[in-house]
Amino acid sequence: MTRQIIVADDHPLFREALKAAVGRLESGARFVEAGTVAALLEAIEGEPDADLLMLDLNMPGAQGFNALVHVRGSRPDLPVVVVSADDDPHTIAGALRYGAQGFIPKSTEAGQIGRAVEAVLSGEIYTPSGYHAPRTNAQSDDDLRIARRIADLTPQQFRVLGMLCSGLLNKQIAYELDVSEATVKAHVTAILRKLAVTTRTQAVLAAGRLAVDRASIKPPPEEPE
Q1: CB 203 within 8 A of CB 161
Q2: How far apart are CA 53 and CA 58, in angstroms?
Q3: Could you check whether 4-121 and 141-216 share the same CATH topology?
Q4: What is the DSSP letter of 65?
Q5: Is CB count within 10 Å lower at the N or C end of the chain?
Q6: What count of Cα atoms within 13 Å lies in the side-chain half-sphere of residue 34?
Q7: How far is C-alpha 173 from the chain's CA centre?
């Protein structure tokens, strides 16, 4: 059986390294690459039979665990392995709590990456050697409520939220998505409703609760909705 694996990372060389590592054990695997969040969402939509997603937490527009929870909401049948340079116990615990089936630090040697993927494809939960779940939980119930709301966004709404988190104005988002500014305003209104907030700033701060580095989330300029 040919495995279909989506590799989502914004660094082409690391995507190649992941493909090579997995290909040692899955010689017939077919890989679909995504270097942006938009490409990731297209791959998720266009590959309904994908067997695995290998997801970098820090792709631009992903805001930490946001892409993970959105994918888990839209494709609960698709196993996700997080691959990240941020490999402290709280980050690993967060990835597992938000639905990842495994966590592979980017420092992992190639042979072990392949074995980790094999373990997840066999239905196991993979964590790096020596990992111990932290005694204190960094994710609150409020974070989980935000995660469920982000999981409920449509792919286009999730794209718009990512652009809001990047500080883009409505007209800039409209240009990037090749849609009208009125369409963007409609998406923003829907996002605010689904996240149970009233302003763009509150939406960005809500999404920022799922960031690995919350300090990296900056409030956007406010615009009339």
Answers
A1: yes
A2: 15
A3: no
A4: T
A5: N
A6: 26
A7: 20
Distance CA 129, CA 115 (A): 12
Whether residue 217 contacts residue 208, with contact meaning beta carbons closer than 8 Å, is answered with: yes
Strands of the sheet with 52-56, listed across from one edge: 30-34, 4-8, 52-56, 80-84, 102-105
End-to-end CA distance of the chain: 50
Per-residue pLDDT, 142: 83
User: And the tokens for 1?
Assistant: 């059986």
Is 4-121 in CATH node 3.40.50.2300?
yes
pLDDT digits over 158-169, tens only? 999 989 988 889
- Domain layout of the chain by residue ranges: 4-121, 141-216
Identify the CATH class of 141-216. mainly alpha
* Token pair for 75: 């494709």
Q: Which two tokens stand for residue 47?
A: 């590959």
